[in-house]
Every structure is written in structure tokens, then in C-alpha cells.
Description:
Layout: E1 2-4, E2 9-16, E3 24-32, H1 39-57, E4 62-65, H2 76-92, E5 97-100, H3 102-110, H4 117-127, H5 137-180
Parallel strand pairs: 1-4, 4-5
Antiparallel strand pairs: 1-2, 2-3
Helix pairs in contact: 1-2, 3-5, 4-5
Amino acid sequence: MGIDPGLTRCGIGMVEGEVGRPLSLIDVNVIRTSADQPVALRLVTIEKGIDAWLDEYAPDAVAVERVFARSDSSTIMGTAQASGIALVAAARRGLPVALHTPSEVKAAVSGSGRADKAQVGAMVTRILRLSAPPKPADAADALALAITHIWRGGAQSRLEEAVARQAARVRSVTTSSRSLR
Length: 181
């Protein structure tokens, strides 16, 4: 599951597949809140929406866009708050959570970390074999996060497992050599 956090529009998308195989769209949507509502109520709306998706689709993992300081600092706080809701909702269920920067996502789906929204939408459309780009851009971004996690997350997990196995071997050898003394 990919989540593009935002206080007004929180993109959420489910993609199924694995590295080396075609990916498939399961569902995509945008959780919307009104700027007229208090922030706390807006966050509750986002939490309920994410919880409903987690319950309905039971993903293996959740990928969330990593919040970064952009030139428009007025949106950072809301984005960070929505991101925190997504992280908590996934962690509450014991799901692995990955954070990917916008440039990582752009590079993964388009080949360029500087791709614009239209390029990301076009590549998501192509990768998932859709008839049209998901709208609004927050929906396409959520799918791009899910795609990135499938493509990069699997490799990252294998690397982490290999490092853990190597560390266990080193501990085992160290323990064995101590017992020989």
C-alpha cells in the first residue's frame, strides 16, 4: 500500500506484484478533508480512511512519502501530521513501514529524480497498464509509492536479511572461539 500524505488530500493506493513480474492496480483513492474543519477532526478523517483501507486490503507493507522541507513550508506541518497518522495506523497492525523520498519515487518509476507530476502519472499509467492516469496527482503519487516499495523494498529486505545472517554468523564464530579458550 502506498500513502501520499496530505491534510487536504491524502492519496492512498494498493498495488499487487513482485519484482520481475507485471504489477497490478488493486485500488486507488484520495481521502479528502475540508480546510474549514479543525485539524484534529481532519486527522481523524484521515485515520479512519487509512484504517478502513488497511482492514479491507490487509497489505503486506505500507510505503509512505518521507516528509521533507520544500519551498512551500505552509504545507509541511499538515503533511507531517498526516504522515504520522499513516505510520501509526500501519505500526498498530504490525505492518512493515517504509519511507521513500519524492526523488526516490520519481527515480524509481520514471528514471529521473526530477520528474514532474505529469511524468510520474504517465509512468504509473504505463507500469500498471491503465487506460488513463489516476487523478488527482495525489492518487498517482500513492501508486508510485507502492510501486517503488515493491521494486526497491524487496531488494532492501533481502539486503537487510543478508546483513542479519552475516552478523549472526560472526556472533556464532565469536562465541565458539571464546568457548575454545
